[in-house]
Design brief:
Elements: H1 2-21, E1 25-27, H2 40-45, E2 49-50, E3 54-58, E4 67-69, H3 71-76, E5 90-94, E6 99-104, E7 117-123, H4 141-163
Parallel strand pairs: 1-3, 2-7
Antiparallel strand pairs: 3-5, 4-6, 6-7
Helix pairs in contact: 1-4
Bound molecules: 2-acetamido-2-deoxy-beta-D-glucopyranose and copper (II) ion.
The site of 2-acetamido-2-deoxy-beta-D-glucopyranose (NAG) has 5 residues, from helix 2.
Amino acid sequence: MALNQLLITFAIVAVVLPQVVLATEFVVGDNSGWTINFNYTAWAKDKEFHVGDKLVFKYPAGKHNVFKVNGAEFKDCVIPPVGVAQNTGNDIIPLAAEGEKWYICGIAKHCESGGQKLAINVLPATEKWTAPAPAPTIPSSAKEILTSRYQLLVAVTVAIAMILNV
Ligand SMILES: *[C@@H]1O[C@H](CO)[C@@H](O)[C@H](O)[C@H]1NC(C)=O
Ligand SMILES: [Cu+2]
């Protein structure tokens, strides 16, 4: 009885886990966070952002903020007239739609002089693993690790089931 419950739990985890872990939270600037004199173009360059992922802007509250802007405002570091800043110091921005997104800091000349601006391109949502086979075109090494972890989990589940002869 308890054994069956364990196996059912494994099976549920094996199905649910990949869809959970494939939504990535990107801490903007990694350990540097959201700050001046950091090259966010270089930071974003080799990353793939997908619908369903999240950006997390981390900084000491009050020192910076985050405005979502359009391409022209990004280029000229202009704060949008009706824009509302995120300013908690731990601003989580879900990427809800595909396409180019632009973010700037609106404090002093951080954007203009400090280069505190981030442009990203958001790709369609990652394919669900419930599809017959994973798409062969997912290039990110992070996802390959996740895939192999998932395959490991499935293999372990199957092995346990076989050993226990259920
Ligand atoms: C930031 O990085 C990008 C991409 O690596 C590079 O093209 C650009 O010149 C860098 N900008 C500065 C200000 O260093
Ligand atoms: Cu700033």
